[in-house]
Structure formats: structure tokens, C-alpha cells
Specification:
By secondary structure, the chain is an alpha/beta fold. The chain contains 34 helices and 14 strands. Helix 14 packs antiparallel against helix 15, helix 16 packs antiparallel against helix 17 and helix 30 runs antiparallel to helix 31.
Amino acid sequence: MLHLTTIGVARTVPDGLQPKRLALLAYLALARPRGAQRRDTLVGLLWPELDQQRARAALRQAVHGMRKRAGHGVIVSTGTELLALSRELVHCDAWDLERAVEAADHERVLSLYCGELLAGLHLTGAPGFEEWRESENRLIRSIAIASAWAAATAAIDRGLVAHGAGLARRAITMDPLDEDGVRRAMRLLATAGDRAGALAEFRRFRDRLMTDLDIEPSAETRALAVQLSVDAGGAPLRLQSVPLRPEPTAPRRARGTERWRLGAAGAIAAIGLVSAALLASVAESPADPRRVEIGAVVNESGDAALENLAWRATQEMRTRVAALQDVAVVAAEPHAARTAGTAVRAWLRADGDSIELRAEVVNRTAGSVERTAVVRFGRHDLSAVAPRFAERVQTAIATALYPGWGTAMSQPASYASYQWFVTGMNAIKREEHDRALAAFTRAFDGDSAFVSAGLMAAAELMKLRRFQAADSLTRILSVRGTARGVDAALLDWLERSLRGDRHGAGAAMLRLTSIAPDAELAWLQLAIDRLRTGRPEQALDALDRITGIEHDAEGWVALWATRIEALHALGRHHRELDVVRRGLAAHPHLRVLAVYELRALAALGRTADVAHLIGLFPNGDVGGVSLAVAVRQAALELRAHGHDDAMLRAYMDPDTIAAPLRRAMVLSMRGEFRPALAIYDSVRRAVPACADCVGISGVLAARLGDRSAAQQRSADLTRLGDTTRTGPHPARARDLLWQARIANALGMRGAASRYLVDAFGAGLPLDAMLHADPDVAGINPDSLYRAYARSGRLQWP
């Protein structure tokens, strides 16, 4: 007998099989539908890098090796194309778990579930196998979660409150971000009279959210916690629905024949929810897309044994959808349904042992199918089907109703991936790009078909100047060729941005706004692209498409900053100052706007106001910008507009600055070039790849009259570009800008202009501060950019 362990650390007895042979055994044991598998499928999963002939030879060798080691009859051949495992000679723990599911033995299911599927088995170059494993892992985890809830309910029914609480906690642990599960546990414990335990679960969940995501639980969960904390007396708590949206009633106690079972398949019992409590009573009103009518799943299979599954899937759908923020499930009857702008129609179909649950999300106003959710399974896999199907429907509706993008974005299979995506989008608004990257990465890792999440992760990598990583991820997504709609436009924008084609990137983003005209982030990015390509008026037009959001409670600093930058580029400094102060009045916590206020005052020549504002700044960072940098920007503005900056230099005392590079910057601003050069040179020797240090050393050497050293630093930048700046161009653009600055400092105006134009071609944005850069101001970068744009040279030469 060959013993195969697939749940937890993957292994066989006898042990020591090569990873691909162990993977082959696992797939033959667990692939759905159960039974024989085609050789073409196996070689495609495990040896995709080989041609057909060599891959089939590798499969034959693997089968021969396993038969030799474990017995000839372990792997059975059916004809020339099919392979299967012998159920008589092989024992697999996953089969034991399935039998426990069929017997509704939830404690046995939980004893068998001891971790991720095939943990410890790592295959390289087999993405198809890894995707299959992840899909199976989600399924078996959902089975274990459902068993944990069923066992918890049964334990509390028997009066074993502590044991039931432990089982509910295990269910939550397996899906730690399932806020619906937390509320379910709170209600379960409250119904049993353990309000203290229910509140303890809330506190644990709240602390986990604050630690991992720095966010609060939803209003519904907080309201339920408040309700529990103020309820008095020892009787079991009567739970009321939270006003923000319909909530399910407390679970019914299972009593004898009232327990729910899934007919002939013997699928797992589940916590009952009274469907009437899920349906909101509604008054006459226009159709609202966030009011969702969910009809009963229609059993088209003709198999009466599947009626229970259809009913269960209906209840699970209504429960899941009702849990969405600001979404109400309305009764599937003419009076109520008239107010529902979204409808869900679902069917159960069967073809032999293969069964399919399919749902369509319909926009009732347009009469169009917006999303489709499908789950296919075999007759032995009924236990966790309803929750899995309901999650697909919940995710389909959530993405269809997602503000701005809606059905134009790709549809994830798991609701957890969608939640991580939303977390990432919220982090972008708060300028928390590391947190946004982590969230998008979690969303994409959890569902590799969720292309939108992968693309947003690549965009955040680019924003964090991790160009090589952004380029690698973008290439992976491009090779897949699965991007559609918004995703295709966003992929095009990424590819063009990474090659330095800012005009092409702007065109791609404009196309995205035509696909998703309410996508605020797309309009903002289009405004940024237009601003960086010397079109500030068009940037303002794009910003005007974003309405009402400037005054939201949280504030969106990038929105304010882009409008301010566009006005600055147009020279409308009075209007610029007005916008800055309006932003600070609406959002005083956005302290970085004070840096823009300082720059606007300097551009207007209001030196007394500049001095007063600097006096109010703390001696550290101002909204993430160092005081030294803020003062430097103000000084550059005063110089660029012909105003005296002597007063500002008095604020820049290098002896008070500990950071060497900041001290060097201040020394350079004060005209103390030699000590500044000494610092930059020491850093350059320690970190030869520091392009900024190489560049500024060249500029300072030129100012000190050392032409040889300055030209050597320019040559160093060329060499640095040849060795470490291959691939995406934004880093090369910076190198070329430094070469332009060095040439300009040496009095080589023609060479400086050529370098600067090449930098624009490599993707250098026309920054609003470029006009104030003393190292290029003499060659008029604005006019050079306009000439470059007219020439049509949109990419790296």
C-alpha cells in the first residue's frame, strides 16, 4: 500500500520521491473529476518547458520509476492516453477528508486538515501545476472552514460553549480577514449567552486589522460590538439588524431532523440563515444598482437529489451579497424588484458526474449581463460548493459595482483578493505607496488571474522607482495576453511609461478614461501625464473631470498637488496660492501642502511671508519633505523670478544638519562648493552606482573650474548607463539630465541642450521645478521640450 499525504507537508511512504514524481502522484489523486487523467494534460502541467516528445519521455520515465519503487499496480494505464491511481493500492489523506465530509463528520474533517495543500512541494517552471494547486488549496480550505462553523454550531447546541468558541476561532484563523465570519462568531457566541466571548472576538479582529492594515472594522461590525457591550441581563442576546444594511438573523439551532444536509451527496451541514431576514423591505424608488434582486437557483439538472444544493446556494448567495458595503438584497417579487438595478439569475446544470453552478449579474437598466460566476465540480465535491459559488457571485457583484472601473476591470475569483485590491486603491489615495504595493501584491498572489491587481502592483513599483521590478512584472502580464478593457489600456500605459514614451503613455491613459469614464484615478494620472509633457492647461481639464472629491473627509494630496503644479507651470501664482490655502483649510492634516504654499509665495516675491512661514515650520520634516529641501525650493523660486534669496540662505545652516547629503546640498546652495564637493565625492567613492552623487560632483567640479574632473564625471554617467541602467529608461533620463547640467556648467550650451532633449526622449518629465533649476535654466528647458515634442521623437533614440 502506497500512503500519500497531501494536506500539510506533501510526502509519500516510502518517502524520497523526486518533487515532480510526487506532484504527479498528487495530481492523479486529486484532479477533478476523479479518475484517469490524460497524458497530454500531465505533461503540459509538469513539463511545459519540453517539446511534446521529450515531455512524454519524461512522463514515461517518472511512471516507470514510481512503479519500480512502489509497485507496478500503483499507477494504472487505460489504453495509451490515460493514467490513474489504484484505489486498492494507494491511500490518500485527502480521500479520507472527502469521506468525512460525506459523513458530515466535521470534527474528523478538522483533524485531517492540518495546513496548506502540498505544503513544502516546490516546482520550478510549472505554472500550470501551481495554479491548479492554489485552486485546490482554496477549495479544501473552504471545506475546512465550513466544517469548523458547522462543528462550532453543533458544540454550542450541546452546551459546549468553550469548545464551540474554539472551533469558531479556528474558522476565523483560516480566513483572518473574513469580517463576515467574525460577525458570525460574535452572533453565535451571543446567542449562546457568551457576550464577553463575542466582544473578545471583535477586539482580536480589530487589533489584527489595525496591526496589518491600519484600518478599522466596518461600521456594521462596530455597531454589532456596541450593541453587545450595552446589552444587559443573562438571557441569550436577541440580535437586531444593523441599520446600514440588512443583516442575517441569528443562526437556528440544529435539532434532529431540522439539521440541514445536502441530500444524496451527504454534504456538510451548515449554519442556517432565515432568507426572509436577508430581504430588505423597500419603498417605491428608481432602480438602484446597489439594490440587488437574487432569484432562487434554478435546478435544470432534473435530479431531485440536487434540490437541496440549489436551495443552499441561493441562501449562501443572499448572505454573501447582503454583507457587501451599502448593498441591499431585495425580495424577488414584482413590487420590490422594481427598485433593484442589479439582478442575479442562477442555474444548476448536470452532465453525468459533472455539475455546474452558473450565475449572471444583470444590469437591469441596460439589460446587459455585467458579470458571470461559474463553479464546476463533481458529485463527490458537493460539501463546500455553495459557499465557494456564493463567494464568486459576491465578488462578481462587488467588482461590477466598484466605483469608476466597474466591469471594465478583471474579475477575481476570490473576495479576499478583491478586498486587498480595494485596500491598495485606498492606500494610493493616502500616498502610502509601500502599503499599496503590498496590498496589490497580496491580491495578485491570491489570484493570478486578477490582472488588474498585478498591473496596479507594477504601477506602484514604478512609482517607487523600482523600475526593473516594474518592467519584469509588466512583461509577465504582457506575455499572458489576457488583458482586456481597462487592463489592456493600463498595460499599454505601463509599457510606454517604462520605455520613456510619455506621449504614448498619455494616449493610453486617455483611452482608459474613455473605457471607464468615472475612474477618478485614471483622470488624475492623465492630468499628471499631460503636466509632464508640457500641457498644463489640458492637465487642468482632466482634473476638472474629478468632481466633489477635493472636499472629502480624508483628502487626496496628489489631486491637490497636481492642480497646484499645473497652475505653477502656467505662471498663475496668485491662483496657485489660493488653491494651496483652500486645500490646507479643508485638510489641515495634509501638511505637505505648506511646502507648496512656501513655493507659491516665493514665486510671487513675497519674501516677508516666506520668512514668516518658515518660522512656523518645525525643525524636521514638513509633511514628509525636509525643511532643507523646502527652503531650497523657495530659494530656487526666488532666484528664478529675479528676487533676492539672501534671506533664505540665512535659514540654511549646514552645522545644524546631521545627514551628510543634506548638509552638502545646503553648502552648495550657499555657494560653498569645495566642502560640498568633498562630501559628494566621498559618498560617490563609497557608492559608485549613486548617479546623483556622480552628477552633482561633476557640476560642482565645473563650478570650481576643474574641467577635467567634470568631464570625467560625465563619462562616468555614460559608463554607469551602459552597465547598470539597461532596461527601462527613467533612470537613464536622470543620468542624461545630470550630463546636461554638467555641460551647462562648463559653458557648453549646445551639448547641454542635446543632453536635455535626449533626457526628454528617455522619459524625463517636464517638472514644474525644472524652470527654476539653476544648472539648466540658461538653456530654456521649456522651449527645448516644445521643440522636442514637435519633432515627434517620442522614444529613446
